[in-house]
Amino acid sequence: MISVQKLTRIFGEGDDSVVAVNELSFQVAPGEVYGLLGANGAGKTTTLRMIMGLLSPSSGDVEILGQHVSSHPDRIKRQIGLVSASAGLYQWLTPREILEFFAGGYGLTREEATAQVARLAELMDLHRFLDRRSATLSTGQKQRVNLARALVHDPPVVLLDEPTRGLDVVGSQVVFDFVRTLREARKAIVVCTHQLDEAERLCDRFGLLFRGQLIREGTLTELREQTGRQSIVEMFVDLLRAPSKAEVGV
Amino acid sequence: MSTGLKSNSQVSESPKTNLWYRSRLFAQKELRETLRDRRTIITLLAMPLLLYPLLGMVFRFLAVSQLKKTAGTEYVVAVGTEVEALWLKTAIDFGDRVLEARAARAAAELRALAPADSTATVSNNEKNGEKPSTEGDVSISTGNRSGLQSGTVASDNTKNPEKSSDSSESTPTDSESLFSAKPRMRILTANDPATLNLNLSVATLEADLGAKVELQSWDGSVEVMQPALVRLTSNRDSMTSRDAQRYVEDRLQAASTSIVLRQARQYNPGIRMPVRITLDSVASNQKSRGFLGLLPLVLLLMTVTGGVYPAIDLTAGERERDTLETLIALPVSRVHLLLAKYVAVFTVTLLTGLVNILAMTATVYALQMETQLFGENGISIYLGLSLLSILIVFGLFYSAVLLALTSASRSFKEAQAYLIPLMLMSIAPGLVILLPGWHLEGLISGIPLVNMLLLARDVFEGSVQILPAMVAVVSTLFYAACALTLAARIFGTDAIAVGSRGTWSDLWKRPSMESTAAPLSTALFTLALMFPLYFFASGVLNRTAGTAPAIRLMTGGGLTILLFGLFPLAIARFRRLNLSGTWQLYPPLSRIWPAAIIIGLGTWPWVYELVLMTQQLGIAQIDEDRLKQVADVLERWKAIPLALMVVCLGVIPGVFEELFFRGFLLSSFRAVFRPWPSIILCGLIFGVFHVIAAEGAAFERLLPSATLGCLLAWIAVRSNSVFPGMLAHVLHNSSLLVIAHYRDELSSMAIGASQQEHLPGLWLLISAAALLTGVIWITFTTRQKPMTSHHLGDI
Fold it and tell me: How much is the ipTM here?
C-alpha cells in the first residue's frame, strides 16, 4: 500500500547542505504497523512529511495505493491521516468544531461529517469534552482529539509521528489501543518514534534510521538474528557507538 | 475500543462537496477562531471606543485651553507713580474704545461694499475671534528702548481684578464669546519711584512691561490730554512681554491719533486722515486642515490596526501553535487556505473600520463638533458611505500586505518585527498629505497608501474628483492582488511551514517542469505588475506631448509591445511556460476566419453606440474640453500617414493585447474557472485597462471595451486559438482609424455622423447583421470541435 522508493531530501546548498534522508526505501502493507525508528535528527519526521507531500523530495518518490505523491498530491493527502504529537489544536474552537472542519476540508458533506464525528467521539471517548473550548483540555484529551482528527476521513493510511510524546501511562495506552484498532481495520500504519521499548510493543516490522539512512529493516525476530541482540534498544546502542555505517555491516 | 472504521477503505479521489462549500467552511473556521479571541475584540471594539472619545476630549481641551489662554492673559505693567498709572489706564481704555469703534466701522463698510463671499469671510474671522485689525491706521516701530529711569516695583496698588470694579484692568467686553476675550492689564506702581528700576523689573519678569510716562501737567481728562512722552520697556526674550508692548502701543497710538484728529477738526471740519487702511482677509485656497487633516490617517491606521493581530495569528500563529502542518496536510491548495485567511483578516479589518466610523461619528455628535470638523453639513450618510467604501478598498489592500508579511514569519515575534516598520512607514504618507500641494492627481493617484489617504482627505473635505479617485481605487486593488499573490507564494512553503532550511530565494526558483498555462498566481502577479507599469508608461507617453505626433505614435506602439508582449514573455520564460499553450498559438479551423473578419469590421458601430449609451445613461460624460482634445488629436493625426497609424494603433495593440488578454490571461483563467467566468473576467480586466491606462482616461470606454473584450474572449474560447480574435481586433481598430482619417471626406458625401449623435439606422442594422452572422457562424463551425482536457464545461 505504501511504497517509498529511494527517497532523498537535501536541505541547503553547497558546503552548507545537509542530507536529511538518503535514498530511503521501504514498503508497508495493509494491516501492517511499520516502525520507523531513530534518534532525534535521524530523518523520521522529514520522511513522513515527504510521504504526506508536505515536503518535496530532492529525489525519489512515494507511491500510495498505486499513485505517486509528486503527481497527485491532493489525492494522496486524502488517503492519509496524520497524527503528530507536536500538532496543536485551535484553542478557540471546540473538538467538535475542529473535527467537523477537518472533515469538511477532506471533502465530506455536512451530514457525513456530523456522523463521522459522532462515531469518533464514541471510538475515542470524546463525549465529555466534545463541546469544550480546546484550550481548556488536558494533554491527554488533546491527544485523543488529535487521534480522532487523523481518522475523520477514515483514510487507508495513517502516519504517526512520536504519538506518545508527553503522554502519561494512561495516555500512551490510549495510543496503543488506537494503533491496534487501526491494525484491525487493515490500515497501513507508519509509526515514527524514538521510544524503542514502546515500538517493540506496537510494530510488526521495523526500519532503523541512522543519519538519514536505513541501517536495518525487518521483524523483531529478523533483527535479532541480524544483530545478535535481544532488544531494539541494544541494537541502537550498537548503532550509535559505531562511527560509520561500514562498521555496522551495511 | 470498538472500531467503527471501515476496513482498509480507500477514500474517494475527489471531494464530495463543491469549492464554494469548502471555501465557506475555511473562511468560517478562520473567522470563528479570530472573532472568539479576546485580543481581536480589544482592537476591534475597545480601541476605537476609547480612542475617539479620548481624541475628542483632547481636541476640545486643547481648543478651550487655547481660548482660555487668550482670555486669561494678564499683562503686568510697571510704572513709577500713581499719576502715571492713572494716565496710562485712561489712555489705554480710550485707545481701546477707539480701536473697537474703528473695527466696527470697518466691518460695516466691508459688509456694505464687499460681495457676499467676502462678507462671509469677515463673519468667519469674527467667529474665529480675530477682530479686524486696525494696525493699518498706525505705524508701529519696534526695537530697543533705552534710557529708562531707575526704581523698584514695591507694591501692587491695584485690587484683585476679579473683586474690584475700579481696578486698573481691561476685562473682556464680550463675555459670551471666549474668542473675543481681551487680555487683562494690571498696573503696578512703586512705593518709592526714585528707586524704581524698570529695566531690572522687566528683565527679571517681575513685570511684562515697564512704562515711564513723562507728563507736563494733567487734570485727568482725556479730552484735554497733555502731550506726554511714554517709554515702553519690554523683554525681547519673552513673548508675553512683546505682546504686552504691542498691545499697549496699539492703544496709545490709537488714542493719540484720535485726539490729534479731533483737535485738527476743530480748525478744519473736513479734514481726514491722509491714509486709511481697512484690513480684510480671505480664506486661502488650501483649506486649513488642522485636526481634520489628521482624521484620515487616524481612521485608516486605526482600521488596519484591527487586521494586524488576526493576520499574525492566522499565519505565524498557526506555525507557532503547530497547527499549520495539519492544515496544509489537507487536500486543499495553499492559495485556497490563504484566501480563507484573507477573508477573515479583511472581515475583521472592515468591522474595525465600521466601529471606527461609528465611534468617530458618536464622538463628534456627542461633543457637538460636526460643524467645526466637517463644515455646515456635518456628518452625512454620503460621507459615511464614502468613508466606508474607502475603508473597504484600503482594507483589501492592507489585509493582503499584512498577510504577505506575516506569511513569511515563523513566529509572532518575527511577524511583529516585520509589521512595526510597515506601521511606521504607513504614518509617513499620512503626514505627507498634511503638506500643502499634495493633491490626488496624476501619478500621485497611483502611489499606494498615499492615494487612499488623499482620497479619504478629499472625502472629508467634500472635494472628490472622480477620475483620480477611480485611479486610486483600481491601482490599490491591483496592488492588493499583487500582495495577495506574493502571500500565496510564501504561505505554507517548506521554509515557513516545516521550518526547513529553505530561504526566501527558494520562492523565486524556476519550476523544474514546463506548464501549458500560467498558474493563476503567476497570471495575477503579472497583471498586478502590469497595471502600474502601464499606468506609468502612459504617464511617460503623456509627457511626450510636445514631440511630433508620428514619434509619439511609434513610442506608444513600442510601449505596447514592451508591456503586453515582452514583459509577459519574460515571465513565461522564467516560469517555464509552454508558449503555444500559454498564448493559445494554435492554428484555428480555417472556416472560422471569415467570421473573424465580419465581426472585426462590423463591431465598431455598436461599440460607438455603447459609448453614446454610457453617456446618455449618465454613467460617464464627455465634456467639451475632452471633445476638443479628441478633435485636436484627430486633426494632428491627419498629417500622419494612414499606414503608420494603422500599424501603431491598429495592428500592434490588436496583436499584443490579444496575446496578453486572450492568450496569457485567458488560458490561465480557463485552467481554473469555467469558460463563462473566464470570459467575463477577461473582458472586465480588458475594459478597466482601457479606462485607466489610456491617454485622457474616461469611463465611457469601460462598457464598450469590456463588451468587446468579452466578445474576443468568447472567440478565443470557441476557436481554441488567439489568432481569429487577433484578426478581429486588428480589423476593428483599423476600421475606426480609417473612418476617423477620412471623416471629412465622408461628411462631405453626407456619410457619417457628428460627435455625440447616433449613427444612421442603416449602419446599425448592417452592423447588427454582421455581428449576428459572425457569432452564429462561429457557434456552428466550432460546435463539433472537441475541447481540450482543461477546457471545462460547455460554452
Answer: 0.89
How many angstroms separate the Cα of B551 from the Cα of each of A153, B557, B696? 66, 10, 19
If we measure between CA atoms, which residue out of A156, B641, A166 comes closest to residue A146? A166
Q: Give chain B's mean pLDDT.
A: 75
Q: Is the torsion defined by CA of B754, B757, B758, B761 positive or negative?
A: negative
Contacts of B400 (CB under 8 A, 6+ apart): B342, B479, B480, B481, B482, B483, B484, B487
Contact B22 A78 (CB under 8 A): no
CA-CA distance, B330 to A73, in Å (whole number)?
Answer: 10
Q: Calculate the alpha carbon distances from A73 to A48, A150, A158, B566 in Å.
A: 14, 17, 16, 34
CA distance, residue B48 to nearest chain A CA (Å): 24
Q: What is the pLDDT of residue B418?
A: 82
Res B140 pLDDT > 50: no
Minimum distance, in Å, between the CA of residue A7 and any CA atom of chain B: 17
The one-letter amino acid code at B15 reads P
In 3D space, the residue among A43, A83, A50 whose CA is nearest the CA of residue A213 turns out to be A43
pLDDT digits 0-9 by tens, B271-321: 777 777 666 655 544 444 555 667 778 888 888 888 888 899 888 888 888
Phi, psi at residue B239, to the nearest 5°? -65, -40
Give the DSSP letter of residue B43: I
B549: CB partners within 8 A, 6+ apart? B636, B637, B639, B640
| Closest among B762, B756, B680, B712 to B600, alpha carbons compared | B712
pLDDT confidence tier of residue B159, bands split at 50, 70 and 90: very low
Given an 8 Å threshold on Cβ–Cβ distance, is A107 in contact with B25?
no
At B610 the pLDDT is 78
Classify each residue of B264-298 as buried b or exposed e, where b means 16 or more C-beta atoms within 10 Å of its C-beta.
Answer: eeeeeeeeeeeeeeeeeeeeeeeeebebbbbbbbb
Across B508-534, b (16+ Cβ under 10 Å) vs e yields eeeeeeebebbbbbbbbbbbbbbbbeb
Please write the tens of the pLDDT for every residue from B598-649.
888 888 888 877 777 776 665 555 556 666 666 676 677 777 788 888 888 8
**A37 bridge partner residues:** A193, A208
Determine the Cα–Cα distance for residues B361 and B368; give it in Å rounded to an integer: 10
pLDDT of residue B37: 84
* Residue written as grid cell 459670551: B176
Taking only residues 22 to 81 of chain B, the set having a beta carbon closer than 8 angstroms to any beta carbon of chain A reads: 22, 25-26, 29, 32-33, 36-37
The residues, any chain, with a CB within 8 Å of residue B365's CB and separated by 6 or more, are B379
Q: Taking a C-beta distance cutoff of 8 angstroms, is the pair B328, B492 a contact? A: yes
- pTM, entire model: 0.61
Report CA torsion sign: B717, B723, B724, B726: positive
Which residue, among B154, B151, B258, has the nearest Cα to B211 in the 3D structure? B151
* B427-460 per-residue burial string, b: 16 or more CB within 10 A, e: under 16: eebbebbeeeeebbeeebbbbbbbbbbbbbbbbb
CB contact under 8 A, B13 and A31: no
DSSP secondary structure of B570-629: HHHHHTTB-HHHHHT-PPPPGGGHHHHHHHHHHSHHHHHHHHHHHHHTTS----HHHHHH
Share of chain B above pLDDT 90, in %: 8
Q: Which residue of A has its CA nearest to B325?
A: A87
**A230 to chain B, closest Cα gap in Å:** 31
The pLDDT tens digits for A85-134 are 777 889 899 999 999 999 999 988 899 999 999 988 988 888 999 999 99
Angle (CA) B200 B201 B204, round 5° = 80
Cell output for B307: 487586521
Q: Give CA–CA dist B368/B469, Å, rounded.
A: 30
For A77, the closest chain B residue by CA position comes to: B331
Amino acid at A232: I
